[in-house]
């Protein structure tokens, strides 16, 4: 019999409900997960990443025991080492010599105890998190306007609005289930207008009625203009503005000065005047309007101002607190919101109270019975890593984040971690760019093993429920924190009998002396029992005592959490990114996400099917720029900035404008040698939120001449010390690499390096088949061991597209290679197998060549393709890409 639990997807902030089943026999493969029909975020649907979760559960690279200086250690020794060192540095240098660097991917309960230990017991507010890189600007924007970090809207509003403005969001790939809910709403009500504001043409533009490809960073001007247009067109709700807000006149005045007319604004933003007027007209004619914003807004040196420019428009027109209206910051990580709720940022205290909130310090101290309260803000992420490098912070505990990849200026991060006296890393994985820098490694339980709560983008708290046993010595993060607290002598405050007790305490603090003064109140749960916690159903906070059903929408009564209860308009002077392109650094670098990978690939990298959508890192470059630089599609290029260098293959595409390039964020040193894009990004931050401008760098792009491109597949892991570029592509059947060497590869050395090591394996020892085409410079090598294929190397002077699937299937096969196979191997053409091309539909593994063939045979719509190939009929994430295959002529007639 299988056991099934309802849990929550560990990927994006949509927070979909997932059914996870465990087979009766633990040796059997975990069956694919399914969507939870009852969960209000997804009603049973899952995107491709969610659907592939089962593939990621068993990993060969789990961290299974604590390690100290590279040696396996017991938990007891690891805990003592940590507790002793923290106590020592606190004694010698004060509490601020210690810091936590946490993550929006730990659970609320993990976050709560970390925050409590640091801010109440050790006495430092140095508790920051990767959420600083993610939604810190959105938090400050809300707090400036509403007095509290409150997301007013819910997912229904996205379906019910008549105008949806998506700013700096590629939700088709990053919040796919929400995107599909929007697509379905638009299909039902085609009059619904969708505007996408993004410098790039993305998959999200697929449903856009209008795409404003703005100059990077110029967003605030669009909304400053909309504010003054609102006044000009008589859209301002005078009653609401007078009764419920402050600062309107000054804000409008500033908007009129900054963006006086359509011509000035269009020029500033680099868009067409007509398009800007269209947006303005739609804003005027649709009262039900939602602005949905994400990292294109937040990751900016003026991110907070951009958020307030958006919120100003909604306040002026009273378009919030109502069905189908509001400024909706969409969160990225599964529990970014939970971290905000416990106060897990360095400039928060706890439970939506700040250090500066009158009476808050005393309130929290009494509730926690805390002996050593921190009294002021701690260091935000970038400042924290600078303070570590300066030797001020001496012990750092990193939990569930990979700063060696995700923080800007990776070289600085490395210097800081090298300097730090004790770096503790809690992770599920043994090998990441950050675990490589640790002095103490703590093995953490992962998604399918741990229990707790997460909060999604619409304030909905859901349970994550563990089902599988912890592998090896892995322990829950909250447990590790509490054990360190106990070893430091704070036992009674951290002696929880289960995770539900932590949640109950968190709920208790949220309600403590609250009486409606603070938005975050989940007092209903303050006495929650284990059984109630087990049966917890997804609910939107606030859930105060007496209101168990929670709260769908905020601010319906026009009351805000400022001192005087009124919302604040904030005058905005739109600005552009801090760094401008120059002759030396002529390209603007944009960064972001891909459909089928998650962050630093520590989970999605375990699912080979997810690597088929985009196998290698790349740089998008406009055809005219590419031509000018002599760069062809697939060619290796060097990107350099004042901070570092990366080497990536070019993807020549019109989706990025001229002068701008785009690089995905996912590839780390574990998957490629020179693809960490944060190497190039400066540590420029928003002055108010401290959020880095991760969407913006200035770089030089160069062609790298005289290269040899290679595809290597092998039954064994291989290394490429002399390569300019290598990338390993996850596969079930063997090891697949894409490699680029400088010209003049020494063949004899290559063969020696790649030959099977064990004599016993090779009856025909080092039997290399070889084929050269002097005309094209192509060289094909295949090594056989005992008649079976062991390693294949295809070399060429030009980037080649060769399907690796067939080669990998031959590696995995126990049959000896036939004569036909040997010929096919050398010719580079698979015999009797269909080459699918790049996988477009990950659910059914349907590739570009199959799609092209089906279109040529008359399946000329997405529906028709779905009928013959099934592509796009499961999770639907590939529909925008499917549409690109359909020639325009056909689309029109379809
Ligand atoms: N598949 C997948 N989904 C994810 C994640 C993932 O790793 N993979 N991560 C999750 C997380 S943590 C987050 S935070 C979210 C992020 O979700 P998104 O914010 O949707 O994702 P990004 O690709 O980072 O950036 C969105 C867009 O911002 C645009 N942009 C860049 N500069 C500007 C600008 O100046 N103005 C405007 N208007 N747009 C600009 C970029 O071109 C990009 O298309 O995704 C979540 N979902
Ligand atoms: N240039 C550029 N940089 C960016 C961004 C960008 O758009 N451009 N986006 C930024 C944003 S929005 C984000 S959110 C960050 C994300 O960046 P990171 O947070 O650095 O990336 P992740 O890969 O999610 O790292 C999570 C780590 O935690 C581990 N882990 C997973 N679950 C658990 C757990 O339960 N416990 C413990 N202890 N460990 C666990 C994983 O194995 C992994 O190593 O990147 C930021 N950096
Ligand atoms: S949209 Fe996809 S990744 Fe996001 S929570 Fe839902 S299933 Fe997970
Ligand atoms: Mo994020």
Q: What would you call the shape?
A: globular
Number of DSSP helical runs = 30
Bound molecules: ligand MGD, iron/sulfur cluster, molybdenum atom
Instruction: Look at the structure and give the CATH class of the largest domain.
Output: Alpha Beta
Keywords: 4Fe-4S, Iron, Iron-sulfur, Metal-binding, Molybdenum, Nitrate assimilation, Oxidoreductase
InterPro entries: Asp_de-COase-like_dom_sf, BFD-like_2Fe2S-bd_dom, BFD-like_2Fe2S-bd_dom_sf, CT_Nitrate-R-NapA-like, MoPterin_dinucl-bd_dom, Mopterin_OxRdtase, Mopterin_OxRdtase_4Fe-4S_dom, MopterinOxRdtase_cofactor_BS
Family: Belongs to the prokaryotic molybdopterin-containing oxidoreductase family. NasA/NapA/NarB subfamily.
Pfam families: Fer2_BFD, Molybdop_Fe4S4, Molybdopterin, Molydop_binding
What secondary-structure arrangement, pairings included, does this model have?
Layout: E1 3-8, E2 17-22, E3 34-35, H1 48-51, E4 67-68, E5 71-72, H2 75-93, E6 98-102, H3 108-122, E7 127-129, H4 136-146, H5 155-160, E8 163-167, H6 171-174, H7 176-188, E9 193-197, E10 210-212, H8 219-232, H9 238-244, E11 245-246, H10 248-258, H11 262-269, H12 273-285, E12 289-293, H13 295-298, H14 303-316, E13 326-329, H15 336-342, H16 360-368, H17 381-389, E14 395-399, H18 403-406, H19 410-419, E15 422-427, E16 440-443, E17 452-455, E18 460-464, H20 477-487, H21 499-511, H22 530-534, E19 539-540, E20 567-568, E21 587-592, E22 618-621, H23 623-629, E23 636-641, E24 644-652, E25 660-664, E26 697-703, E27 707-714, E28 725-729, E29 735-742, H24 747-754, E30 767-773, E31 778-785, E32 788-796, H25 805-812, H26 819-827, E33 839-841, E34 846-847, H27 848-856, H28 862-869, H29 879-885, H30 888-893
Parallel strand pairs: 6-7, 6-14, 8-9, 8-12, 9-10, 11-20, 12-13, 14-15, 15-16, 21-25, 22-24
Antiparallel strand pairs: 1-2, 2-3, 4-5, 4-16, 17-18, 18-19, 21-26, 23-24, 23-26, 27-29, 27-32, 28-29, 30-31, 31-32, 33-34
Helix pairs in contact: 2-20, 3-15, 3-20, 3-21, 4-14, 8-10, 8-11, 8-12, 8-14, 17-19
One ligand MGD binds at residues 103, 105-106, 130, 133-134, 295, 299, 332-333, 399-403, 405-406, 426-429, 432, 444, 446, 477, 591-592, 599-600, 602, 665, 677-678, 681, 694.
């Amino acid at each position: 019999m299988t056991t099934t639990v309802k849990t929550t997807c560990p990927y994006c902030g949509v927070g979909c409900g997932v059914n996870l089943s465990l087979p009766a026999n633990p040796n059997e493969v975990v069956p694919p997960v399914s969507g939870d029909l009852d969960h209000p975020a997804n009603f049973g649907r899952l995107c491709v990443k969610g659907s592939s979760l089962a593939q990621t559960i068993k990993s060969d690279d789990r961290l299974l025991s604590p390690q100290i200086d590279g040696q396996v250690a017991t938990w007891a020794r690891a805990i003592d080492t940590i507790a002793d060192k923290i106590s020592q540095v606190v004694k010698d240098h004060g509490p601020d010599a210690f810091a936590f660097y946490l993550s929006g991917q730990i659970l609320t309960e993990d976050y709560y105890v970390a925050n409590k230990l640091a801010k109440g017991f050790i006495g430092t507010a140095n508790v920051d998190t990767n959420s600083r890189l993610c939604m810190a600007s959105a938090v400050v924007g809300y707090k400036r306007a509403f007095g509290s970090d409150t997301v007013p809207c819910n997912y229904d509003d996205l379906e019910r609005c008549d105008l949806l403005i998506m700013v700096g969001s590629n939700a088709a790939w990053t919040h796919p289930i929400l995107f599909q809910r929007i697509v379905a709403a638009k299909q039902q009500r085609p009059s619904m207008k969708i505007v996408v504001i993004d410098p790039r043409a993305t998959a999200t533009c697929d449903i856009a009625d209008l795409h404003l490809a703005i100059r990077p960073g110029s967003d605030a001007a669009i909304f400053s203009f909309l504010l003054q247009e609102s006044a000009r067109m008589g859209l301002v709700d005078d009653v609401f503005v007078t009764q419920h807000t402050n600062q309107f006149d000054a804000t409008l005045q500033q908007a009129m000065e900054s963006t006086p007319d359509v011509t000035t604004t269009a020029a500033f933003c680099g868009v067409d005047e007509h398009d800007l007027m269209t947006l303005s007209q739609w804003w005027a004619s649709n009262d039900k309007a939602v602005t949905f914003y994400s990292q294109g807004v937040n990751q900016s040196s003026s991110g907070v101002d951009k958020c307030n420019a958006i919120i100003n428009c909604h306040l002026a027109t009273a378009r919030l607190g109502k069905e189908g209206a509001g400024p909706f910051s969409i969160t990225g990580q599964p529990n970014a919101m939970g971290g905000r709720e416990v106060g897990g940022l360095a400039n928060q205290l706890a439970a939506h109270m700040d250090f500066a909130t009158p009476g808050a310090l005393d309130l929290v101290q009494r509730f926690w019975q805390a002996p050593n309260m921190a009294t002021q803000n701690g260091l935000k992420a970038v400042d924290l890593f600078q303070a570590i490098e300066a030797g001020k912070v001496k012990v750092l505990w990193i939990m569930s984040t990979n700063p060696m990849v995700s923080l800007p200026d990776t070289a600085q991060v490395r210097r800081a971690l090298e300097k730090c006296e004790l770096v503790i890393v809690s992770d599920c994985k043994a090998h990441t760019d950050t675990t490589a820098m640790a002095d103490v490694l703590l093995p953490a339980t992962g998604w399918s093993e741990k229990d707790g709560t997460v909060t999604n983008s619409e304030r909905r708290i859901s349970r994550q429920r563990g089902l599988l046993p912890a592998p090896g010595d892995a322990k829950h993060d909250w447990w590790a924190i509490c054990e360190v607290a106990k070893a430091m002598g704070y036992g009674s405050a951290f002696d929880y009998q289960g995770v539900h007790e932590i949640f109950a305490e968190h709920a208790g603090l949220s309600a403590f002396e609250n009486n409606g003064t603070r938005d975050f109140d989940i007092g209903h749960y303050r006495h929650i029992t284990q059984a109630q916690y087990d049966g917890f159903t997804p609910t939107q906070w606030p859930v105060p005592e007496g209101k168990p059903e929670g709260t769908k929408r905020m601010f319906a009564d026009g009351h805000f959490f400022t001192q005087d209860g009124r919302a604040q308009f904030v005058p905005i002077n739109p600005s552009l990114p801090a760094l401008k392109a120059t002759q030396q650094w002529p390209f603007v670098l944009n960064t972001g996400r891909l459909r089928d990978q998650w962050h630093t690939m520590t989970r999605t990298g375990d699912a080979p099917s997810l690597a088929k959508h985009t196998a290698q890192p790349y740089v998008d470059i406009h055809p005219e720029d590419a031509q000018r630089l002599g760069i062809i599609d697939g060619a290796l290029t060097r990107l350099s900035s004042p901070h570092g260098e990366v080497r990536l293959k070019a993807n020549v595409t019109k989706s990025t404008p001229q002068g701008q390039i785009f690089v995905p964020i996912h590839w780390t040193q574990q998957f490629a040698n020179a693809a960490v894009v944060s190497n190039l990004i400066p540590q420029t931050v928003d002055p108010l939120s401290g959020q880095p401008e991760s969407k913006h760098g200035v770089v030089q792009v160069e062609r790298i001449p005289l290269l040899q491109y290679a595809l290597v597949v092998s039954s064994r892991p291989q290394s490429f010390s002399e390569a300019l570029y290598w990338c390993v592509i996850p596969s079930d059947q063997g090891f697949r690499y894409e490699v680029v060497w400088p010209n003049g590869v020494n063949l004899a050395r290559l063969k020696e390096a790649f030959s099977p090591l064990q004599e016993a394996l090779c009856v025909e020892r080092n039997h290399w088949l070889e084929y050269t085409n002097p005309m094209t410079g192509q060289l094909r090598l295949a090594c056989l061991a005992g008649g079976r294929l062991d390693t294949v190397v295809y070399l060429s002077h030009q980037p080649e597209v060769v399907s690796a699937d067939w080669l990998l299937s031959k590696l995995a096969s126990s049959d000896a290679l036939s004569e036909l196979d040997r010929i096919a191997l050398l010719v580079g053409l698979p015999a009797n197998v269909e080459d699918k091309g790049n996988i477009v539909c990950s659910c059914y593994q349907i590739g570009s060549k199959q799609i092209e063939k089906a279109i040529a045979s008359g399946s000329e719509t997405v529906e028709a393709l779905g009928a013959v190939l099934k592509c796009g009929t499961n999770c639907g994430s590939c529909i925008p890409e499917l549409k690109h295959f359909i020639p325009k002529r056909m689309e029109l007639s379809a």
